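Sequence in, structure out.
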Amino acid sequence: MVIDNETVTGLEQKSGKVSLEMLAKLTGFPVDLIKEEIFKGSDAEQVSLDDLRSAMLTYLDSTMLTQNEK
């Protein structure tokens, strides 16, 4: 899925941020789960796309490493 200005109304063009609520709607995961698992308990309601990419890569790396250890 590509997150761009046309498909995500929560993305602010100037700030380049997306709301966690919109991200939750797009992914089908609860906002609390996204905050706890992806952003390690952050209270932020919006994140930049760079921060989202970085957090997702970190989460995927840690998940894959955990699965490889089994």
